[in-house]
Amino acid sequence: MTSRSILLVEDNPDDEALTLRALKKNNILNEVNIARDGAEALAFLFPDGGTTVRLPGLILLDLKLPKIEGLEVLRRIRADDRTKIVPVVVLTSSKLEDDILASYQSGANSYVRKPVKFAEFADAVKTLGVFWLLLNEPAPDFMPASD
Amino acid sequence: MSWNPSAERIYGYSAQEIVGRPMITLYPPDRVGEVGKILETIRRGERVKHFETVRRRKDGTTFPASVTVSPIYDEHGQLLGASSIARDITEQQELRAMGELRRRAEDLEQANHNLETFTYSVSHDLRAPLRAMYGFSEALLDEYGELLGEVGQGYAERIQAAGDQMTMLIDDLLRLSRILRAEMHLATVDLGAEAARITGDLQRGSERSVRFVVQRPVQVMADHALIRTVLQNLLENAWKFTSRRDSATIEFGATPTEDATVNCYVRDNGVGFDGAYADQLFQPFRRLHSTGEFPGTGVGLASVRQIVERHGGRVWAEGTVDEGATFHFTLRAGDSR
Fold first, then answer.
1. Chain B residue whose CA is closest to A122
2. Contact B178, B115 (CB under 8 A)
3. Which residues of B248-267 are buried (b: 16+ CB within 10 A; e: fewer)?
4. Which residue from B120, B132, B163 is facing A14, i.e. has the nearest CB?
5. Which of B198, B186, B223, B218 is nearest to B307 (CA)?
6. A17 contact residues in B (CB cutoff 8 A)
7. Do B1 and B24 contact (CB within 8 A), yes or no?
8. What are residue A6's DSSP bridge partners?
9. Nearest Cα to A56, choosing from A109, A8, A21?
10. Which of A45, A80, A56 lies closest to A145, judged by CA?
11. B101-119 burial, b if ≥16 CB within 10 A, otherwise e?
């Protein structure tokens, strides 16, 4: 599990630190890039406004984000043919049905509610990492960025 | 007195029938007192404008009216009499009432919306700091446990225990707000069968031997899911507060009343409570025992009261320290078959 990178879109520094710790605890040593709001996430994916793209192997996306909401980030990822195929996991505190439905309708690959307790949180991160970065076969011609 | 066709239409009297009869013919008995005040105003040379009152038709029925009375003078400025124009404002009043209803519906919708926003913020925003409390105290124990020593580890564990308490509070608050919002679907429910199911679950998950006495059937009119929450809360409380009894007994039953209500009760022989504080029990977050003694948030009984009151019933409690407690609630009787 080393080649594909992870883009973590998370505005809460505590959750960021805990997610990184959970990844490390589970020996998921892939490169992690962090975006702290929706605008940063889009700037990472489309560094020059759309001419080129950076493709992470997995995007962990929070919904409630400053500047550009998570759902809007997701829609823009799905609107571009190149980023369309990147697996996006919505990782959020909300379990509102509306949020879950809207996430799937906007093209999320899965929706995971951040558990409150660390042990469960670490388990969730591990399962996600194993599935999306190891087990799951990415789309053909999918060449994740390695910068 | 002159009488025009529109007056005839409103009151049902023809001109022949009414001219010459006293003004109070058109007044319902409880409005007769208005005559004096209206005449006084006219004598002062002033008008009574759009005065909202009630008038009586020929057939004895009444209608809401807007009355305007103006003084009439002769060419010398002498007061001759008064002209009175009454309008039937039934329709306006209905419209006004409908407007009021609509405003209330809008207010209610707004309140519901606020409640939803609140629920969202409770479930989302309050959990984030909680995750940090758990996560970092766990990290402290995990990575710096030895440095912390026994006392330091105890502190970190206290943070986690406080997190557990807060998790319970958040869950209970969410449950309470769901109860407030839930739509009610009334049907006949056998509370005895529900109580048997709940006590069966309690018994299965435990080594304790508790004697359950459950009356069946107890048919009431209630929303199934909501009333189940009531029983669950009361029976789990009884279970909790009898945990130190060697021979605990928990009863559920009902006594029929003369009218169509059923008086239900859950009784236990647990630690009980001081009857002087019985009212406080049903207030959110009020507890008569410390969390160290018995865990809890103080939301359960508040939920019980909310639900029973939404069903139009009443709750009350009786208790004696060290002898036990009885919780009563009333509901409408169901169809018994």
1. B135
2. no
3. bbbbbbbeeeeeebbebbbb
4. B132
5. B223
6. 135-136
7. no
8. A32, A58
9. A8
10. A56
11. eeeeeeeeeeeeeeeeeeb
* Cβ–Cβ under 8 Å, residues B330 and B264: yes
Type of residue at B14:
S
Place of tokens 């949180």: A121
Report the predicted TM-score, pTM, of the whole model to 2 decimal places. Answer: 0.61
Contact A23, A53 (CB under 8 A): no
pLDDT in tens, A1-24: 346 899 999 999 999 999 999 999
Contact B163 A116 (CB under 8 A): yes
Asked whether residue A94 carries a pLDDT value surpassing 90, the answer given is no
- In B74-197, where do the E strands start and end? 79-88, 186-190
DSSP percent split of chain A into helix, strand, coil, nearest 5: 40, 15, 45
What's the mean per-residue pLDDT of chain B? Answer: 88
Asked if B127 lies within 8 A of A14 by C-beta distance, the reply is no
Q: What are B228's two structure tokens?
A: 């189940």
Sheet holding B62-73, edge to edge: B48-56, B62-73, B79-88
Q: How far apart are CA B299 and CA B279, in angstroms?
A: 14
Q: Are B18 and B11 in contact (CB under 8 A)?
A: yes
B12: left (phi over 0), alpha (psi -120 to 50) or beta: left
| b/e code B200-231 from CB counts within 10 Å (16+ = b) | eebeeeeeeebebebbeebbbbbbeebbbbbb
Are residues B139 and A95, on separate chains, in Cβ contact within 8 Å? no
Residue A99 tokens read as: 């949020």
pLDDT digits (tens, 9 = 90+) for B283-306: 877 788 877 778 787 888 988 998
Chain B residue with Cα closest to A63: B124
| Residue owning tokens 């709750």 | B315
Q: Which residue type does A61 have? A: L
